[in-house]
């Protein structure tokens, strides 16, 4: 009997030994630990059990009348390779131990031994089986999970994101993508572009935070020779380069007010003007924007133009943080394991998965991706990813709920109406009369709301 924790889960065990005392006492210890045990008095009786059913573990003596333990071991491995076999003997030699391990034995133990030794071996086997089963289950879930252009998720929030992307991708509608750093805003922009009619033309990405303020306007719109000191040649701006395609403006909240004015002209008139140019140029560009802050707050604080905000925020896509995507966390971990594993069967310990769920992931999906990549790089010959490599040495803090987003009642109603209209159109395959019936409004009312929210024709 043991005072430590019971086995991870019940296993079926065949115990084969011609010594009645050992068979009875070891069976009692294993059953007390939660396992279902069948005993056989010799190898011939064991053969009948093995041929009739499968076992998780077979524990066999080495020297027995009729059929020795090595034959039992080989028989088990030929019938059920996944069954683990523990070999016991009172006459052990190095040669027999090596032979048993080569034949596929899980462990080789010498009599006499405390029953606790076998109990602990079965606990280890149970934990390993649990790990393998969880890994297999994650692979199956990953295969069934929704995915879109590199994004994986089955949580409600991500299903809504996927639905919105599919609805707006082909409509040339402007989309404002909001989410914390690392949630995948650029992946959303890439998905919208790839599913749109502009996919054959460039997708140009600019981080407004990464380009120094004095250079941002030049980067976006270009310049003519002589426009400023050292401007010896014409420079084509990103908007001009993206003609016919899509421009993705990341960290739009970091765009200076002066540049916001020029961007507004692009959205209103479809024109850009190179620095130093005498006439504007017409460009056909779809603009997608992303922000890690609430742009409405930036408008109220005077840091962002109100008219530009409404031009950009035609259809909002809000990416939930990873801490609110518990249903997706394990799937994403498996996705990155397969991406970085190079064909090796890496897996996470069950206890580590529990800690990952409790962890707040301030860097979101990007942090998880880098953590998995680092853990695999440091795993060496082991295929079980270690906590120290994935989460570090610090204790996992308790997860704190994300603060509720405060918004005006009018904005909340508008967002709800947009989402309901998009969902109804998706449900009816774009048939507006049927969508109006589902929504409980007139066809004319639906048309007016779609026009006000710029949700297509």
Features:
457 residues; 4 domains; five-stranded parallel beta sheet; alpha/beta; Rossmann fold; 18 strands; Helicase, Ruva Protein, domain 3
Please tell me about this protein's structure.
The chain is an alpha/beta fold and 457 residues long. 47% of the residues lie in helices and 15% in strands. The protein contains 19 helices and 18 strands. The strands form six sheets. The protein has a five-stranded parallel sheet, sandwiched between helices. It has a five-stranded parallel sheet with strand order 9-12-15-8-16. A two-stranded antiparallel ribbon has the order 6-7. The longest helix has 30 residues. It is elongated and about 100 Å long. The model has no long low-confidence stretch (mean pLDDT 85).
